[in-house]
Amino acid sequence: MIKTILQFLLLFIILTLLQVVCNHICIFGVAIPIVYIYFLIRLPINLSVNWCMTLAFLLGLTIDIFSNTQGMNALACVVTAALRRPVFSLYFAREDDLANPIPSIQTLGFGIYIKYLLSMVLIFCILLFAIQAFTLHNLQVTMMRIAASTILSTLLIFGIDSLDTKREKRL
Questions:
Q1: What structural domains does the chain harbor?
Q2: Which of 19, 58, 106, 120 has the highest count of CB atoms within 10 angstroms of its CB?
Q3: Per-residue DSSP letters for 137-168?
Q4: d(Cα 93, Cα 95) in Å, to the nearest integer?
Q5: Are 144 and 30 in contact, with CB atoms under 8 Å apart?
Q6: For the segment 78-116, what is each residue's pLDDT rounded down to a tens digit?
C-alpha cells in the first residue's frame, strides 16, 4: 500500500515537472502537449470518486500555480476525474474482472486501453480549451487546438505508458 502511494506521489511530481516544461511548447501554434493527465488516467479504477476528484483538484491546482491559469486546469481535471468511471464502463463492462485495477496497456489490452485513453484526453482537451476560449468567436481555431492537442497528448501518454509497461515486465 505504501509502495503504491509513493509510486503515485513520484508520478505526480514527475508529470507536474514535465508539464511545466511542456507548457512552453506549442507545435504549429495549435498543439500543446498535455501529459499530466496521465496521472488521472493511471489512478486505480476502484478508487472512490471523492479521492479521484480531490487528487485531480490538487493536480490541476498545482499546474495552475505553475502556469498562472486561474483555475482552468483544476476545473478541467475535476470534471475529467468525475467522468473517469463512466467512460471506463463504456469500454469495460465489469470492473470486477480486472486482476489489476490500474488502467494500462498490460491490464486492459491495447484496444480497450487506447479507446479509454483517447476518450479521457479528448474530454479533458474539450473542457480545457472551451474554458480558455470561453467564446464561439474563433470556433475553428479552438476545434483545431482540441484535435491537435488530443492527438499529440494521446501519443505522448501512450508512449509514457509503454515505457512504464516495459519497466513492469522487467520486474
A1: 2-170 (1.10.1760)
A2: 120
A3: TTHHHHHHHHHHHHHHHHHHHHHHHHHHHHHH
A4: 7
A5: yes
A6: 999 999 999 988 887 766 566 678 888 888 888 888 999
